[in-house]
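Let us practice reading a record.
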Amino acid sequence: MQVEINDPRLTRPFERRSVAAELEGETVAAVDRRGKYLVVRFESGRSLLIHLRMTGSLLHARNGALADDPYRRAVVRLDDGSDVAYRDVRRFGTWLLLEPGELDDYLAARLGSEPLDRGFTARRLAERLQDRRAPIKAALLDQRTLAGMGNIYADEALWLARVHPLRPAGELAPDEITRVTKGVKDALRAGVARQGATLRDYSTPDGRRGRMQLEFKAYGRAGEPCDRCGTPIEKTRVAGRGTWFCPMCQQLEPRRYAASRSSRRPSRSSRQSSV
């Protein structure tokens, strides 16, 4: 394996040439995933953790067929002559080389349950949310709660569960936690089946677009009718992230929230009398 790393930000605080030299000659034993990390395991016992962040992607090309790309940050030449290119427009992604025995402790300190594993249950989620005052959307995005959960699928999961994203996580009733658990699983399975969502430049390793964006129920649909009740989807911000929800299906506190909405909008009778 030959490695070329062109962006010093990719491996900081370690020097890019030193990391590339350490990777030279390694043999890949397995490739898997933990949370949002791609884990490349080598026969030497070392591991390379790749975090794609916002705009990172990997592209596989055979026989030197890589096209010119100003956003290419690294290239790995495999023994069969094919290339794996790492592309990142915003340069937020990271590569971290870990020595034998370091991987498990590193991940355990940063990641919670895998949401599609059998071990992720409503009881397990309830334990993670107990006494949490943060909004449920923020709690779901905390990687120590759920490994790999992202902004899009948190919105989709909460829409499926009929839970408002600003509800305090520790105040959810048992039936709501059960619905959130199922919503998380269903949203992620839908995303996997459709190979993710292509909103800007995301693509699969063979260059194809994902299809999940064609079936969003909440995310990015402000002003569009809810597929369940017809009420326009609204947008707010939770933990600094754009957040979409249905104000009718996902009520914050039904009576108070309904009152706050009625105070913002004139009643039908007042609109008619003003015409």
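A brief commentary: The two ends are 74 Å apart (CA to CA).
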